Amino acid sequence: MARQTPLRAIRGMHDLLPDQSARWQQLEDRARAVLERYGYQEMRTPLVEQSELFKRSIGEVTDIVEKEMYSFEDRGGDQLSLRPEGTASCVRAAIEHGLLEQPRRIWYRGPMFRRERPQRGRYRQFHQIGVEVFGLGGPDIDLEVILLTHRLWQALGLGDLRLEINSLGDSAERADYREQLVAYLRAHEDRLDDDSRRRLETNPLRVLDSKNPDLQALLASAPSLHAALGRDSRAHFEALCAGLERAGIAYEINPRLVRGLDYYNRTVFEWITDALGAQGTVCAGGRYDGLVEQLGGRATPAVGFALGLERLLELSDSAPPASIDAYLIAVGEQASAAAMPIAERIRDALPALRLICHCGGGSFKSQFKRADRSGARVALVLGDDELAQGRIGIKPLRAPQDDRTQASTDQAKAEQTSVALDALAEQLPRFL
Ligand code: HAM
């Protein structure tokens, strides 16, 4: 048969290749450790939901729902969508399984799908780690989720992230403000660009979000959302600011931070870096006290955030952790036959050891080459003679992890040590 044209991954959707996975796992492990330290429990929900869920939560006239969802009718005629974010699913599941009787701290991770124009830091399948807290309405929990993200940056070795916060008020306050803003923008409609004119009709608060430099002066003089906040919203926001100050977390109040999803009220926040170009928001979230009720549950306050793993990974320059410790090579008829059972015995004796057992035969030279390419710290070397004497060779391929000077690397590469097979489990760790 003639060779076929190879198929490619969908634009904006990426394969996670074997040599990248160690960094992803490291990031996910560190994040999970921090989340567990704050008492958050993981939840996993399906990647596909009824489209209606996202329309009712994110909002019919948001970019996500209007333009970016991967939606389809399944064979039973149901209207379904790949999830563009995790909050809606989390709320749906919490209602469905009666999780809202008491305060809950939940986290999740996984791929999200938005058909945006792909560019650096913006993909059509991307990955989030998110947090949702249900049943707590005060500024103290807003502070906790921000402190948690701050600790995450420390755990990941990230500096240089800027925290922006804002308050959107409650729905009545926002409705009042919306009227004021629409009146102001209508009075200056000739100065708006097409996008803002469209948003003025559908989602006027999002005009504040415009990055168009020509609009900045106009928007800077727009009525202030903060002036529209009532007493309770103001007190909530001030308590959060005071908490951040007590905790020594620097922040900026950005009165034009409005977020692209409709469900937010009161606190919203973003962590932003200048190091990633236009897509600099690595983490974003806020309070959404009306959403549970809007999706059919009993009124329950809620707050959460999600961070973008691709963006965080691009920002951190951590070296990938080594993934292989040892590579067992065997030459000779008896040695080759004994290699797999010996590898099993070694794995029994050293449960944390990551060991590859060579497959496919070949000379010492070719097997050593494979061992070296695997990234292993040591080769374990078995020949018929060694086997007959009950011994095995340990040949360092790299200096031990805690000593990587050039001298130690050269010295390490030079020597091969022979040890009794029975003593291998005891001897091997000092070479790793
Ligand atoms: P979001 O702002 O849409 O919020 O997304 C959160 C983060 O996901 C962004 O700050 C960014 O790091 C990452 N992200 C979003 N879209 C993309 C993309 N196309 N490519 C790469 N990364 C992306 C939410 O999703 C809310 N559910 C957050 C939340 C949780 N609010 C309350 N609870």
Overview features:
432 residues, alpha+beta, BirA Bifunctional Protein, domain 2, Rossmann fold, 2 domains, eight-stranded mixed beta sheet, five-stranded mixed beta sheet, 16 strands, 20% strand, elongated
What report would you give on this structure?
With 432 residues, the chain is α+β, with helices and mostly antiparallel strands. The chain has two domains: 18-170 and 230-315, Bira Bifunctional Protein, Domain 2 (BirA Bifunctional Protein, domain 2, 2-Layer Sandwich), CATH 3.30.930; 326-431, Anticodon-binding domain (Rossmann fold), CATH 3.40.50.800. The protein has helices spanning 18-37, 51-58, 63-68, 87-96, 139-155, 171-187, 194-202, 216-220, 231-246, 291-294, 309-315, 333-349, 364-373, 384-389, 406-414, 424-427, and strands at residues 41-42, 48-50, 71-73, 79-82, 104-113, 125-134, 162-167, 252-253, 265-272, 281-287, 302-308, 326-331, 355-357, 378-383, 391-396, 417-420. The mean pLDDT is 93. The protein is built from 16 helices and 16 strands. It is elongated. Strand 9 and strand 10 (281-287) form a beta hairpin. Helix 1 runs antiparallel to helix 5 (139-155) and helix 5 (139-155) packs parallel to helix 9. Helices cover 38% and strands 20% of the residues. The strands form three sheets. An eight-stranded mixed beta sheet has the order 1-5-6-11-10-9-7-8. Strands 13-12-14-15-16 form a five-stranded mixed beta sheet, sandwiched between helices. The protein binds histidyl-adenosine monophosphate. The site of histidyl-adenosine monophosphate has 26 residues, from strand 6, strand 10, strand 11 and helix 11.
